[in-house]
TrEMBL record:
Organism: candidate division LCP-89 bacterium B3_LCP
Record's protein name: Ubiquinone biosynthesis protein UbiE
Gene3D superfamilies attached to this UniProt entry: Vaccinia Virus protein VP39
A single GO molecular function term of this UniProt record: S-adenosylmethionine-dependent methyltransferase activity
Record's keyword annotation contains Transferase: yes
Pfam families hit by this protein: Methyltransf_11
Length: 265
């Protein structure tokens, strides 16, 4: 699959600008498919325990860290490469009275600024699709895990039916993904680090229904709010709607989806 020349700098443009606000409008603060419900499923699959220390990679608005602190009794660190997301995450952590339990840093997730064997678990939700060097990302995640520690993440992936080169280029260009890994690819990346793969689940059918849900929200309820975010540019709004409809079609064809992965060190 062709990898596009999309870098962290391109992703920063998205999340430092109106597109990032738009994704929060559609998907909530957690900015991932399934919100609270999906996060609780990942917690249960991973066996997250009270008192653990975790690291959320691509932590965005910090909602994943706050969710885990509030619902699992853990302490968290978050790492994200976008200044706007980092600043908002700090402000929201402070506003919710959780700043003493969450450490947030601005940086590159392929160069994690913590020592080896620091964390009981490393966490990610639907964001590693933005990372160019996923091999280095997973390797770094494994490095900072304590022996016996847990890697738990979800991500948007190429579905089991596979995308054509043209389909992948269209979706990745719109979403600012350098490429999407597939289920087998992530399994290989995980195993290459020496981690033991516990589970790798294809969530593509569920993912397709969520894309439909987001489109319906935008067209039936949130059109005014979305237009306001993008400067009332109706042409852009319609173009973005067309790209989301294309993604929905590919999801229903099993060509684009989502995976959930658990591994142990």
């Amino acid at each position: 699959m062709e990898r596009l020349n999309i870098s962290l700098e391109d992703v920063k443009v998205v999340y430092d600008g109106p597109e990032g606000v738009l994704w929060e409008l559609i998907m909530g603060e957690q900015i991932h498919v399934g919100g609270f419900k999906s996060s609780m499923e990942l917690v249960q699959k991973a066996g997250i325990q009270q008192g653990w220390k975790g690291l959320d990679l691509c932590s965005a608005l910090g909602a994943g860290c706050r969710f885990l602190v509030k619902n699992c009794g853990v302490t968290m660190c978050g790492l994200d490469g976008t200044q706007t997301m980092h600043q908002k995450a700090q402000e929201r952590s402070q506003a919710e009275g959780l700043a003493d339990k969450i450490e947030l840093r601005l940086g590159d997730v392929t160069e994690i600024p913590w020592p080896d064997n620091t964390f009981d678990f490393v966490w990610g939700e639907d964001a590693w699709c933005y990372v160019v060097d996923k091999d280095k990302l997973v390797s770094e995640a494994a490095r900072v895990l304590k022996p016996g520690g847990t890697l738990a993440f979800t991500d948007w992936i190429e579905g089991p039916a596979g995308l054509s080169d043209d389909e992948a280029k269209r979706i990745n260009t719109f979403m600012k993904f350098p490429y999407m890994e597939n289920l087998e690819g992530y399994k290989t990346l995980i195993q290459n680090t020496g981690l033991t793969l516990v589970s790798a689940e294809d969530l593509t059918p569920e993912y397709a229904s969520y894309v439909d849900f987001y489109i319906k929200m935008l067209t039936d309820q949130l059109s005014y709010d979305a237009l306001k975010i993008i400067g009332d540019d109706m042409e852009l709004f319609q173009a973005m709607g067309g790209e989301m409809a294309f993604m929905g079609q590919k999801a229903h064809e099993g060509k684009m989806g989502r995976g959930r992965f658990i591994a142990r060190k």
